[in-house]
């Protein structure tokens, strides 16, 4: 009988996987959280320590560039130096069902507890429905005492934002984490919600680096953001040319 | 493993939580029942005695005005004086799934039975699809012998209303409550269904107060209703101005 | 903990509830099967012997003409004389979920087996998408040897009808019944699919009476069919008048 | 209590059902995989050895040309000669729910393991959204070492195709099969996605025959493909005539 969720750890039993903080960057609005977490993992050279599979993920395989099919999975990476010990939660999908979100998040927290996590950062995008210039990083916490630290790092608490709450793992990790005594901070980069948004991820990363007291080279992420800007400019020009063309027919 | 539903009682085991009647005001059409129950709780000074969390609630957290995230929860409050001992059921959400409605309602009734509830009032709105002046309070009961008492308090039994039955906890508490020997009365304030409707809640509260034989100061609720009236008037004026503008283009 | 399905039998253990045939008339297209089964029960004076409730029914209560709320339920009635012993399955709803259909039908068959059922008739409507004059009764069986008997009674086996199969309890009782060694015959009265169709029910009943070798007074059902005809004629006249009005504006 | 999935094997315990490879051709885009697998079974004279039924299939029966109703089922066929021993998985439906896909595929693999399967071929269509002349057979594998063999047989690995992954049993058999040490190759014939496409099935079969080193007479499948071509030509001619008619009104 297939398990609802399976967690496979790599390495031997004697490996020390203990961590202090967890950073979640699963897929979501504008892939803002996912890009930020994956960029950070890459820059730090984090190592994969576990894989999570579940019947709550969509019923399909993903095919990589080489034509090899893989079951959807979420992954746990780890990075440790003298200053920080971080567990990363990244992956292919969030749950496809409402109940699955609760059950998967509970499993993520089982892993976090096993590794000794004391604080969780969840990263995401905050869709505003239009293109924006000055990107704010909106925050929410699961304990009021965390607010000062968050504000000092450049994130803001905005009245009535996010109005509809925080949906999925980014929200439930704060809510269910609090019941296990873990501090939780959700950082959401503002984004249009229409495109993959590395620029918003970059703003998110600036706040997160400051909070963690570590510096992350953001060159690659800025490069992706620049490419996206060029792409958006072209799109705007094309739109404009199309409109002028239509007008010339009329005029 | 996360529980489907968790119920956490506050206080010590020696606390006397026994009640005689239960009043349900969960979210629904026009928030009519929710506003009425919450206003009553506030005026009476009811105290929270338990919280209910469930994987049948939407998979998200709610963020309060201070930026603190909370798991969705329903709550049990209690008020007792020499005349009445009331258990209130209020909260953030109803179930997101059909089966969840049955399972959650069964849990609400477990709590009610534990507290000794003999009668349940469920409060809701009855959406009619247009703005109304004279708001009726429509009733349904789970035992025919309750009808006279209900009619004497000003609620009405309207032929073929509600035609589609009563959906969610307000309905199932009557149906499943009957199987446990509890009297059940559902009171539904007529409402357009388009807006949050404190005016309808106020009408509901008038009937309920009379049935319970207690007086509730409805000043605050009337104030909210007045504010909503002003807001609606402005909306109508704006609509009218817009129509006149359009006509002036034509005329 | 609430059961997924509960079956409550009335009467004492010494009651003889044994039957030979089962007739299912749950809600469906045009309520054709439901009307036929309920009319037959009424004419024969069948008696209720059991009620079925389930979390697979929609999460609501139904309110009767007197304002009394009832949990949705399906019901088992029984009629027996020297010639026939019939178990009827009628009620408020079919399952709201796919899996629920299988699980509920399995429960219906548990009851049928307990009562000694050897043959099942399932009654339904066959929606054709337009008003029809000559109503055929389309049949399907779960054993080829039953076809001659069915054809002799006036029902027809129509190539490629029903093309999409038979959905819900009417179909699954045949399929799952076969695995328990029960004969199964599904009779479907043609109907537009737009209205409640007592005329189609009447045709269905004519075939069923002949198969069972009992006569059922169909006066009441014919009366309802006539009323519906009058209603449809009026509707047509109104449509025609409206069209003529529109034409007079143009001409 | 009805089982979620039931598997019924035919024959006696002493029967040797062992196989080396499995071919899956369940319903999907253009029925490309289904037609290919069923044609191959017929030409080889494969024999049915097991049937699978499940509450995850749609809640209905299918009615055959003779008017006999059958529960939806998937079927296991077997063919063996001196060169090959093949298990076929074909049938009426895939799962109706996301979780059901995982659980059913797990059952398919239990059967495969029992029969000794070492390699799985899953067959399907790859919908491109327009009619095509030169049909490619797109491939995906669950182990990179299988690619050369696949390419040598005429299938292609196309960058970013299929972009959205492979949904349903064709995908999950590769993903979950890998965890059991079985080789997996998915072959997808390009197809418009609008019609049942025997021509695409025929291309699929050519690749598969070559990989298996057996020759399959494809005359019948080509005949069906020709009939479909004639049908499509007629459709195009009718469309053209209709357009010319409309133009003659204007000109």
Automatic annotation (TrEMBL), chains A, B, C, D:
Give coiled-coil spans as residue ranges: none
Q: Name the Pfam families on file.
A: PAC2
What superkingdom heads the lineage? Archaea
UniProt-recorded name of the protein: Proteasome assembly chaperone family protein
Q: Where does this protein come from, organism-wise? A: Methanolacinia petrolearia (strain DSM 11571 / OCM 486 / SEBR 4847)
